[in-house]
Request: fold
Amino acid sequence: MAESSMAATAGAKTPVRSDKTLLRALAGERVDPPPAWLMRQAGRYLPEYRATRAQAGDFLSLCYNPDLAAEVTLQPIRRFGFDAAILFADILLLPQALGADLWFVTGEGPRLSPLTDAAGVAALKPTGAIHETLNPIYETVRILRRELPEETTLIGFAGAPWTVATYMIAGRGTPDQGPAHALRTGDPAAFDALMAQLTEATIEYLSAQIEAGAEVVKIFDSWAGSLKDTAFQRYALEPARAITAALKARHPGIPVIGFPREAGQGYVGFARATGVDCVALDNSVSADWAAREVQTDGCVQGNLDPRHMVTGGPALTAEARRIVRAFAGGPHIFNLGHGITPDADPENVHRLLEAIRG
Ligand code: CP3
Reply:
């Protein structure tokens, strides 16, 4: 009750006051101990995830089954008590909704029908058609808002246009995003048309997740690090700015987390340039450096090396505490620098949370 009356009087620019630790950190508050969740916290390192995925049949059937997708989202919350749950889905469902064929090869990763030219871009479905495919994802969000514990924040997400485009153009993951760079420089008109449609579709997709109950959204730009200088500005910063501005215009106060992975120096000023409320950091940057150069603009998230979740031991505890101390002067959300891997030991997640929460 108190929350909703405050929201009503707070005005469009002020985030809703909340008891949820993650929302408080996103609003710029220093929270001690910091709220914590892990990228890929629902995944193959958990036996209960593997069992539910087997029940669904395969990964994509799991993503499109709202009851089972909600179940795997809840599993790590029950087991570990994270401060946030991230919707279980994938960044490649959006290209599928735009008409790309999508399948996953076990042990290798995603495959899509490659998009190589202007005709391929023109053949994509109109943006308004995405909801036909993505409706089950919004249903997962609605179930989660009913079933999550009161203190747990629900995060929705999408891939950033550049990262999604790299998979669409190559038809798979690539070590250097070569095919996407080749289209970007070889046929800039086709490439820009694809980026424009992905930006528009991402706004619609995230907006629908927010309407269904997502309390925060995160934009994953996993391959931002391969964009340099003006290309970084044009294809990483500018789409993140446009998406954030459109979402905040439609849903005043909605917090946005940006993850321009491996942006390095590009992390500096990213929040100011894009309007995101929080910058997620990968583990290639030092926490001390990021506290001085990035956290001065607001909340940061990160950035423990995911290998510690495999190796554990005293190094896990020491490194987690070092990161907590480095960011203790401002708003911080604890996370890994990238997703937890299938070979991680679930016991190490308990050890990590003990190290953070004391
Ligand atoms: O974090 C979460 O728990 C939420 C769900 C989530 C998944 N993928 C589930 C998933 C999220 C947020 C993603 C994001 C995603 N998907 C990214 C951006 C983040 C990153 O990792 O850089 C990217 C690039 C993808 C595309 C993708 N999906 C790839 C390259 C792969 C294969 C690699 C792998 O880990 O297997 C996937 C598959 C995928 N997405 C799995 C999960 C749990 C594994 C599927 C399985 O169960 O076999």
